[in-house]
Sequence to fold (260 residues):
Amino acid sequence: MTINWILERVEESPSTNEDLMSRWRDGELWEPIARVAAKQSAGRGRMGRTWVSHSDQALTFSIAYPFKKPIAKLSGLSLACGLAVIQGISQATGLSKDALKELGLGLKWPNDIFLGDAKLAGLLIEGGQVNATQPTWLVIGIGINLRTDLTIEQNIGRSIASISQITNEPKIDADVLWLAIIKELGDVLEAFEKNSFKAFQQEWNKWDIYQNQTCQISQIDKISMEGIERGVDDEGYLLIETPNGIQRVISGDVSLRKAS
Ligand code: BTN
Fold:
């Protein structure tokens, strides 16, 4: 069954995630909903970071969905959402997934979509279950760069990737991309209700940009582990091969980077 999303569009919002989170906290979410903003003034990223984007330079939206499962049974969901973003990009650009991979599109554990060496998109999942009788409302926020922007690159001190680098069209239709991704996210969320991350593990590992490379796991900017990245297990835990054996890393306040 296809999810019927309530679609909302605003010119400006502090953060589409916060908009939907505050409705959840106030008990005002009833149906699956998707909210897009042309501009965010206080976009948030993982680990308390900010997500900076300019008006129409990025596609910034959030969806809220009520899961029947408790949050403990949704492990790996954010990874599967990354696959939905790739599938949506493929649909909206008309490029096959093989062509996109050829161009350098890939996933970086846990929640990033990369194009070559630069980040194209990020995902932030918030929410939870108020009590056992209530659904688990998750707010899934996605920011995708449509165009590169020198000011942003200067602000964050590194290059960013954008959709304009993978399509021949001078201007991608952001609505087409938004609707394609929402549709794919809907399919992933429904599959997750029935199955678990196991159904996505193999596909995720195919897109993993750091697989078999020496990587570091950091927590609050301190390196806590170094080893060879071996993809994810069937719950979405990252596997790092260290001299002490394979370690399973849970996606919390940790970040992954390639060892230099
Ligand atoms: C990250 O890479 O750290 C996650 C970035 C998530 C950004 C999106 S933009 C739409 C939604 N609203 C927010 O405030 N954040 C997410």
